[in-house]
Amino acid sequence: MTVTGGRSLLSWATVVPLVALVALLSMWSLHPSDPIVLTVLAALLVGAVLSAVHHAEVIAHRVGEPYGSLILAVAVTVIEVGLIVMLMTSGSESTSTYARDTVFAAVMITLNGIVGASLLVGALKHRLVSFNPTGTGSALSTVVALAGLTLVLPSYTTSGEGRTYSASQLAFAAIASATLYVSFVLTQTGQHRDFFLPVSADEYGRMTGVLDEDGDDHADPPSAAVAWRSLALLLAALVSVVGLAKLLSPTIEDAVRALDLPYAVVGVVIALMVLAPESIAAIRNASRDRVQISLNLAYGSAMASIGLTVPTIAIAMIWIDGPLELGLEQTHVVLLALSVIVAVLTVVQGRAKALQGIVHLVLFAAFLFLSIFP
Q: pTM for the full model?
């Protein structure tokens, strides 16, 4: 898709985020239950997701990669963290595991859902897709370290009760998570930025160099004024996505209870809605043979989900009563281990066929199935 800076101020991408934000503010304290109102809010949620993708592409075209994917991942995650804190302080059931369930769902969605869909779409359209294994491998290793420190180790330590960290252990995990995330961002945007740019490849999918950032998009980059406007509308769209997800969460909870499903399904559904902008952006980039950007979005979102959430939750626990259960159950540990092994085998090659995408999607389907039928 060609990104241009001359769109009308009354285009759908401008109007929808503002309408969604107005609807969010007007309904925030009303707790709507009318089916028609809920349907309208759901439609605005979908529109806000699509407009967020559009404005993220405008900004990415202005600032270039990897900054564009980084902005979208961080923006979504910052607001997602706010949603987690709000739901943890709302007094709803299973608040002790909500952060864990949501973060793990985000990791599985990004590691298998977004990566798998991107590889499959890209490979079906271009036969083989290529990416830089050096940059992608460093991103994956950071995700694995973050997930191990925050989601796996709490189930095996002895200082805290059950699957929880003690106060000192939680503080260490928070500092370690922030350190890893900041270190990766500095690597990605600093002297090793080239490792995260789209690559050119030969007919066998072997990387031959870094792709010219303007080589696949004939439109001139938007002006600074247009980019700033898109940034404001992106934030409005993302606030709307997360806020509307919060308004719809009681309906989701009621449906989960009516179907007698595990409460963890609520976190999965909300994570799917919140991560929809990254998912759509990643798949669209894969269809344009820019899988490196898709992987930047996926692994960057997984990193941000852990690296920003855990430090924030650790600070919030000063005021939130009750335990914070971060450790995964055995089934989820096995799923995470399988996902890591498959991801390593995918990334190390620097190129992928449709089969790799299918393998990741099957693991994602297994996560969804076992979330419903544990």
A: 0.82
Sequence-distant (6+) residues with CB within 8 A of 17 are 48, 51, 52, 55, 233, 234, 236, 237, 240
Query: In the numeric block, which tokens belong to residue 24?
Result: 């969010």
Domain 12-372 has CATH 1.20.1420.30: yes
List pLDDT tens digits, range 21-68: 999 888 887 778 788 888 898 889 888 878 887 887 788 778 776 777
Could you tell me the residue ranges of all domains in the chain?
12-372
DSSP string, 46-112: HHHHHHHHHHHHHHHHHH-TTHHHHHHHHHHHHHHHHHHHHHHTTT-TTHHHHHHHHHHHHHHIIII
Contact 320, 91 (CB under 8 A): no
Two tokens, residue 101: 């369930």
Question: Is there a cis peptide before residue 17, judged by omega within 30 degrees of 0?
Answer: no
Q: Are 198 and 293 in contact (CB under 8 A)?
A: yes
User: H/E element holding 199?
Assistant: strand 199-201
Query: What distance in Å separates the CA atoms of residue 226 and residue 208, rounded to the nearest whole number?
Result: 34
Two structure tokens written together for 25: 């503010």
Strand, helix or coil for residue 351: strand
Q: What is the mean pLDDT of the chain?
A: 84
* Separation between Cα atoms, residue 51 and residue 359, nearest integer Å: 30
> Is the backbone of residue 197 left (phi > 0), alpha (psi -120 to 50) or beta?
beta
Residues 6+ apart with CB under 8 A from 53: 277, 280, 281, 284
Model confidence band, residue 214 (pLDDT cutoffs 50, 70, 90):
very low
327, two tokens: 């450790």
What's the confidence (pLDDT) of residue 222? 79
The secondary structure of 114-165, three-state, reads HHHHHHHHHHHHHCCEECCHHHHHHHHHHHHHHHHHHHHHHHCCCCCCCCEC
**Beta partners for residue 199, in sequence order:** 210
| Residue at 46: amino acid letter | V
Which tokens sit at 190?
């600093």
Q: Is 370 helix (H, G, I), strand (E, B) or coil?
A: helix
Residue count of the chain: 374
